[in-house]
Amino acid sequence: HFLGPSYNLSVDEVLDTAILNASSFGFFDKAVHHIVTQSGEERGVVLTPDGTTVALLPLLLGIESGLKASTDGTPPAGIFPLTLGRRLGLSFLSLQEFPPSYRLGPNGCWDSVKHPKVFKLSKPATLVTDAIINGGMDGLILGMDLSNHSAPQQALSELLKGYYNFTLHEMRGLDAVHAHISPRRRGISKSILEPLDLYGLVMETLHLIWKLEKTEWIALDKGVEKAVKEGLQEFAHKYWALWSALMATSTKAEVGTSSAHTPGVTTV
């Protein structure tokens, strides 16, 4: 994990200089820890204003990577492995005996929309649930925005509000919006990642993991490359191609109707 210098400090040293007190620090640490229980409850996720369930861990890793890059005056190196690449690669490999469509997801539902507390998955979990994908995309997008050295500095709270709570003016559909907002996460992440060699990046990430864990022998498995290629094709189809088709369909509808029914978007 990409935790910065504080990772090397003791708990007492962290709390001495932290904004959060011990109780809040413990809650925050528990809230961002992503797990799926035996009963299929996914924790470490939140329901955002756009109606999407987002895992906090990849979101925060992307934000931290972007902030560090901005502070250091360098590109956000490693932001893809941190937000999406690591989980994607490991999920593809762990389920390579199953069809590619079984190696991603699933989604789930909350016990309440007004007061959400428990999020239950619809099927057995992979290492990249939809919430992990959503959080990874958001972390990637916001991290890239924060690393933009030429952009004016903005409070993180304002950045998050602008991304997750967006006001759409009448007679404008989402296709006419160029700002980075959460309902467009799939299209924006596609524009960032599609030009890159994702296969090479995922394989590079896996080789680093194997080196750190001293399991380089896994690279000798001839099925690794095939599993990653098939998995990335399924990822692009499920999270990019289907989104593009949905947006193309929505533009044919009346703009006022489509925008008014877009989760997390307010029309004025």
From TrEMBL:
> Please, which domain of life does this record's source organism belong to?
Eukaryota
Q: What name does UniProt use for this protein?
A: Peptidoglycan recognition protein Lc2
